[in-house]
Amino acid sequence: MDREETEIELRRDLAAVFRVMARLDMNEQIAGHNSMMLPHGEGEEPRFLINPRGLHYSEISASRLLLCNLTGDVLSGDGELRKVAFHIHARIHRMHPQAQCILHTHPQYLTALSLLEGGRMEFCHQNDMALAGRIAYDDDFNGIVLDDAEGDRLARALGDRTILLMANHGVTVVGPTIHDAFDELYMAERTCKYQMTAMATGRPLREMKREHRMNHKGTWSDYFDARLHLDAWRRILDRDEPDYAA
Asked: CB of 68 within 8 A of CB of 32?
């Protein structure tokens, strides 16, 4: 694909993720933000796609995404880049080139875990075999992210991990592609749901043997059908909400 075709397809993938997250109740009213870097050559200005301020996830379509640079300028698209979104996404994109896609949201179970003192994903479900070692925990809530210094602090807290559980806030998941980040977010939230449901019984969790850890810090789709998962959702959206791709 040429650059124009690549951008169109990335826009459609990212718009699809917004629509799916709305269906899964992963959006926070009109807040929350997801971004994707566009390919660029040496010496070219890095640019990324992101949702404009004020749109519900269910309203977002490929053409409504903003194209911005890493200094916060809106290069194309109608609408405003939210200040909070800029300071989280631009700083992580700058400090972690492998984080081509960034999904920041407040899903029910991961967010609930972030509210618990010492909240951690335990090693008790088979999905934890893959997730173990991929989650960073930021236990220092510093208020709303309104400057580069706080964005940089979050980027440092992420380190070499792909999931950042943000105390008293929510979660940020990064990946080299949209489908990698989305599938990992989906699995992390589902796994947290199972854990929190089990914890609600008041009975102790049954931990697995540590030897079952995969210790994989590479691309999520090395082991999981992330692309097929997003393709399946796109087929559903093509049938039910085809305007996402417009």
From this structure: no
Question: Tokens 């059908």 identify what position?
Answer: 225
CATH architecture of the domain covering 3-241: 3-Layer(aba) Sandwich (3.40)
pTM for the model = 0.96
Are the C-beta atoms of 101 and 174 separated by less than 8 Å?
A: yes
Structure-derived torsion over alpha carbons of residues 86, 89, 90, 96, reported in degrees to the nearest 10: 170
Closest to 168 measured CA to CA, from 144, 138, 150, 141? 141
At 167-182, the pLDDT tens digits run: 999 999 999 999 999 9
Please check whether residue 10 is in contact with residue 34, taking contact to mean a CB–CB distance below 8 angstroms: no
Q: Which residues contact 43 (CB under 8 A, 6 or more apart)?
A: none
